[in-house]
Amino acid sequence: MTRNNYLKIALVISLIALISAISSHGIYTFYLQNGFPKFQSQLELGIIALAILFIVLPALSVIGLLLKKIWGILPLALFPIVATVFSVSTLPFISQVFPVGSVRSIIIIVINILFFLVTVYIGVKSFRQQ
């Protein structure tokens, strides 16, 4: 496979990640609806930064991969980490299928790890194709 084929596969995966991020709108709109805290601790600032990254990473990945840039894979690889913090699957609507509990958490973690590994594999393969 050529580098462009790997980038096209990564683009499809990043579009799936973007759909997952958009469908979980409560994460990145929570502070817009409820007001920003007064930043009494660094933890609050960190959570707000992660909430912003939750929507920015897949969008940035789509932009980079539409431009056929290999750097578009990096935000795609970081997205499962941020999604796991918020207990959201990188695949759309998986979080809503399973009831809240330990089984759902395990399934989401497994899906996000597999998503991360596939993204890294595609990134390594496309980087070697230069």
Label this structure with key terms.
77% helix; single chain; 130 residues; mainly alpha
pLDDT < 50 runs, ≥5 residues: none
Number of helices: 6
Distance between the termini: 12 Å
Write the H/E string, N to C. Answer: HHHHHH
Main β-sheet, in a few words? none
β-strand amount: under 5%
Outline, from the CA principal axes?
A: globular
What's the count of strands? Answer: 0
Provide the gyration radius in Å: 16 Å
Q: Please identify the structural class as seen in this structure.
A: mainly alpha
Q: Tell me, rounded to a whole number, the average pLDDT.
A: 87
Total discrete domains? 1
Query: Level of helix content?
Result: over 70%
Outline the structure in words:
By secondary structure, this protein is mainly alpha-helical. The chain has one domain. The protein has six helices and no strands. The chain has helices at residues 3-23, 25-34, 42-66, 73-85, 94-97, 102-128. The longest helix is centred in the last third of the chain and has 27 residues, at 102-128. It is globular and about 50 Å long. The mean pLDDT is 87.
